[in-house]
Amino acid sequence: MPQSLFLDTLQGKCTDRPPVWFMRQAGRVLPNYMDMRDQYGFKEMMDTPELAAKVTLLPIDDLGVDAAILFSDILVIPEAMGMELSFEGKGPSFKVALKDVEDPNLFLKEQPEKLQHIYKAIDLIKQQKPEHIPLIGFCGGPLTTLCYMYQGFSQNLNFPDVIPALYRDTKVISKVIDRITEMSIEYAKNQVAHGIDAFQLFETHAGLVPSDIYQKLFLPSVKKILTAVRDLGVKTIFLPKGLGTGLSMVNYDLCDCISVDWQVPLEGVRQYVGNEITLQGNFDPRILQTTPEVITDHFNKYLEFGQKEHNWIFNLGHGLLPTIPVDNVKHLVNLVKDSDWKR
Ligand code: CP3
Question: What is the DSSP code (8-state) at residue 275?
């Protein structure tokens, strides 16, 4: 592959400017995506390799980002463990939630063949993408995946039944976590076999549990998944949203890059994660709901940061929101690309 700013930065090389991409760039804010959504359902698009490949590649031209992320969803893992998933109405939901079955471990049935269409999508993306644009694969973190499986839906994002169950039925839930982990490892390794260039683990709900519980029940799984990918020579990014000072559990032993949410100032992150790891983040996506002037003003702090810190990928603290005007996103990409980073 010709030089990629994104991969060079992940390898610790100093580049002329930081690479830029956005979580949830594939979809949501793009007019071309909205036009496709008028024609197809979200799940239909995810399940059809040709459509998934097309959406994955939209943001390269429409936003000008430096990397593509596979258009899919973290909930394909529960689906491949026998849970029926729908995206109709408000967000995703499962027909039967683990909280409502007598024995979750009897209820779940692994069907890895249900992930085949995603590997096909990766093959198509690899054929169609510009050579210098790397493809990021991903899966959900074990806690986030468990939350959706156990609660069945995400409406208030508190998952009120999940955390008590973690304390009460630890043995049963630990077994479910092990099975999510095994499935995620197989999925991640197959993504690598089909040619992804980097891999991100989305632990969006890391902040739901005390960090010592996260460390004990979930971090070993995270390490297994990320190590399986690293052992195949692909760089790994970990997003543990809301982990706060629990970031001190994260270092270069665990992953190549840490995606930081907006709560922790980037300038202070290295005191937790050490000097070797690449940083990613953490522009607040809600700033993109304002005006180009406000965006530029906030961007200037990042410009200062990136003039001193070279081991950093420009991204948001979390995903793009559907209410963000696409021109504001383009404005931010242009700021990253056109500024003098003094490198
Ligand atoms: O980042 C990307 O652009 C790649 C594709 C991607 C999607 N979902 C597409 C999507 C990725 C990486 C995800 C991850 C995901 N999915 C997470 C973890 C990361 C995060 O941002 O929090 C979670 C918790 C989910 C589960 C999920 N999928 C929810 C709660 C929802 C509904 C609310 C929402 O965020 O829109 C989805 C739907 C979803 N996943 C959409 C897209 C483009 C919107 C579908 C549509 O209506 O067009």
Answer: S
Which atom of ligand 1 approaches the CA of 72 most closely?
5
For the question of whether the overall pTM of this predicted structure is more than 0.90, the answer is: yes
CB distance 27 to ligand 1 below 6 Å: yes
What was the pLDDT predicted at 1?
Answer: 62
- Measured from the Cα of 22, ligand 1's closest atom is 1
Type and span of the H or E element at 200: strand 198-203
Architecture of domain 5-338 in this structure: Alpha-Beta Barrel (3.20)
What pLDDT digit, counting tens, does each position of 285-315 carry? 999 999 999 999 999 999 999 999 999 999 9
- Which sequence spans correspond to the domains of the chain? 5-338
Cα dihedral 334, 32, 140, 102, rounded to 10, equals: 150
Tens-digit pLDDT profile for residues 207-245: 999 999 999 999 999 999 999 999 999 999 999 999 999
Q: Whose CA is nearest to atom 32 of ligand 1?
A: 91
Active-site residues, by number, are 24, 28, 37, 73, 148
